[in-house]
Amino acid sequence: RDRALVVYASDRSLLDTAWRPHADQGELTGASLDHSMWFHTPPRFDDWLLYNMHSPRAASGRGLAFGAIYDRAGQHLVSVAQEGVLRRR
To answer: Are 6 and 13 in contact (CB under 8 A)?
Structure first.
């Protein structure tokens, strides 16, 4: 159950990291093209988790973002990658 919750939570905001530089272009809509996760250590969703996200590239209506999820002790639990499309409404 904890893994399913982490998968759901990881998909909620990762692409926002790629879209942020384009926020001045008006109302935007996007969709995920792919979302991959690697579980290095089983996470516990009932404790504190840090989700560190960055986007190395967003251009031509597409964005790529990466994330890493850490526990309270700083142990890297999960790696995340997501690509998406972005359009003006």
So the answer is: no
pLDDT of residue 68: 97
Q: Point out the catalytic residue in the list 11, 16, 71, 79.
A: 11
Q: From CA 8, how far away is CA 3, in angstroms rounded?
A: 9
Report if pTM > 0.85.
yes
Q: Does 10 qualify as catalytic in the annotation?
A: no
In 1-89, the DSSP E strands lie at 28-39, 49-59, 62-71, 76-88
Q: Which member of 13, 25, 32, 36 is catalytic?
A: 32
Q: Which of 9-13, 15-19, 25-29, 53-57 has the highest mean pLDDT?
A: 53-57
- 82 is known as an active-site residue: yes
